[in-house]
Amino acid sequence: xxxxxxxVQLARMLAVPLDGLTPASATALISARAPDLAAALFREAADxxxxxxxxxxxxxxxxxLVSFGDLxxxxxxxxxxxxxxxxxxxxx
Length: 92
Known about the structure:
This protein has 92 residues and is mainly α. It has one domain (5-91). It has helices at 5-14, 23-32, 34-47, 54-68, 74-88. The longest helix has 15 residues, at 54-68.
């Protein structure tokens, strides 16, 4: 059975082992390390050729949050958005 791509990406982004990572444990990990995930998403946005402005960076973040779907709780999403916004301030 192929691994859930969301779990593979999360393991890479947060430098955790993929073995044993489940949707439930991923949700808990994201909640515990939301600022770290925001930093990883910011690095991805900064490295993306498609991100050319603050607006496109925010669009990138939102599309990535959607891609993780139900792994990200509403409170974790709020924390991620706030931490991402703090990093964007450096671009202004």
